[in-house]
Amino acid sequence: MHKLFPMHLSKGIDKLKFFANITGMKKTKSYKFKEVDLVSLRELALKVKNPTRFRLRYGGLLTILRTNVEEKLVHTLVQFYDPVFRCFTFPDFQLAPTLEAYSSSLGLPIAEKTPFTGPGSSLTPLVITKDLHLKTSDVSKNLITKSHIQGFTSKYLLEQANLESTCQDTLEAILALLIYGLILFPNLDNFVDMNAIVIFHSKNPVPTLLADTYHVIHDRTLKGRGYILCCIPLLYRWFISHLPSSFHTNAENWSYSQRIMALTPDEVVWITPATRVKEIITGCGDFLNVPLLGTRGGINYNPELAMRQFGFPMRAKPINLATSQEFFYYSNAPAGQRKTFIDAWSKVRRKDVKHLGVRSEPRRLACLTLL
User: Fold this and answer.
1) What pLDDT, on the 0 to 100 scale, is given for residue 288?
2) Structural domain boundaries of the chain?
3) % the chain with pLDDT above 70
């Protein structure tokens, strides 16, 4: 049973007990991450002549591509995931990825429209042709089906991008799509599937990215093992943005779990540039929290748990926020559940931070944790 305690009460041996309870210290959960041919993608990125124009068109995809992920740190982070509250719970504090943080890191806004609604949608070769600046006949010929889903092989896309006759518009569009299919929304090996193509076309990937992060980590936490198929560079960038510069100091003889366990609320970087936003999405439709649809299913997350990251104290007990614990795969979703999620996004609730009070300095924020 989770209870609320002031952070300063968790000390010494209590931290060890906490870690054992949350992560199963006696049996660390085993996770794997999909390998991606970053060399080919990074070589292609070097051919982008105008990075500023690329960013204006596609956001910060090049930054995501160039992120060198410390997988051991991400593996350790996932051990702290709390399936009840949909956040990462540590001995003295909790952290939760948010739509606003992902939007800032990716350099793309959350569009004023319903995001990706799940598998089933597809684009015609003509639409894809316009997005990639290719020939319709060539797109039709190379749009193949693999494991019951249409898409392109990464080999084909790389070949098209590297042709001497390929113009910059085509090169940049193909590079962006490759990043969507292989890094942002990884699925089959060396394959950019239709889900990624549809999301690329929508120019509204943030809600789906956050959905995939929560959905796959939640699922793998319950199973205790498996591949983490979400945008790992984005999750990694979010987490390290909250770590102090001293985190890696004198780390030779310390494991990541020991270093994370030793962190105190005063050391955590609470307010980052990504969280200095003017408004926050706090809920959708009749949900008390935010329902998210990813590429594999639906899940909800609680923005209230991230208030401290925006510079404000939590105003309610977390136990009162998790009354709607939604989680499903599209293959076994309850009747009408998917539609309920979709409809909720037509009524997004945003709160201006001016109505939340004055942003506090991190050291003055209320200290609540989930224990």
Assistant:
1) 86
2) 1-32+68-116+205-371, 37-66+120-203
3) 86
